[in-house]
Design a protein that fits this description.
elongated; about 150 residues
């Protein structure tokens, strides 16, 4: 999807310090040090701030050295789309959440050097594999809770 605005690749590289708008809430912020980053300002549908005005928030989209102008425009478009639906992009982005089994496998690998011997490490992961993974191994770690 081609989304166009006021900024160009050349301008992004050469603009001086300040906040430079591309349109539709997308801004390139250039620090006095020369660092460049993208932000998008969105208004949340149906949400109000403490003073009763529409809730407006700025979201960082990444540094201009890592995020191209077109990528920033696409991300800004997606954030605005979510805000129009009343969703907060900060909390509603799709994130890859590891499963219990994935985390346990990584812990096993990380702790290999500190086991008394290789047999203890093998016993630990084999016990999880035999008794725990079949029941909760595919559960995302964010869905787990500690029982008191």
């Amino acid at each position: 999807m081609a989304i166009s605005g006021k900024l160009t690749k050349k301008l992004v590289e050469n603009l001086s310090a300040g906040q430079h708008g591309d349109g539709n809430g997308l801004y390139l912020v250039v620090d006095p040090s020369g660092a460049r980053r993208w932000i998008v300002r969105v208004v949340f549908k149906g949400q109000k701030n403490k003073k009763g005005a529409p809730l407006r928030t700025d979201f960082g989209l990444g540094g201009a050295d890592m995020v191209t102008l077109n990528q920033a425009r696409e991300r800004a478009f997606e954030y605005r789309r979510m805000a129009k639906q009343g969703l907060n992009p900060r909390f509603n982005e799709r994130q890859e959440v590891p499963t219990f089994e994935e985390v346990a496998q990584q812990v096993h690998i990380d702790r290999m050097p500190i086991w008394k011997n290789a047999k203890h490490g093998a016993q630990w992961i084999n016990t999880l594999r035999d008794y725990t993974f079949p029941k909760i191994g595919r559960m995302p770690v964010t869905d787990m809770d500690r029982q008191a």
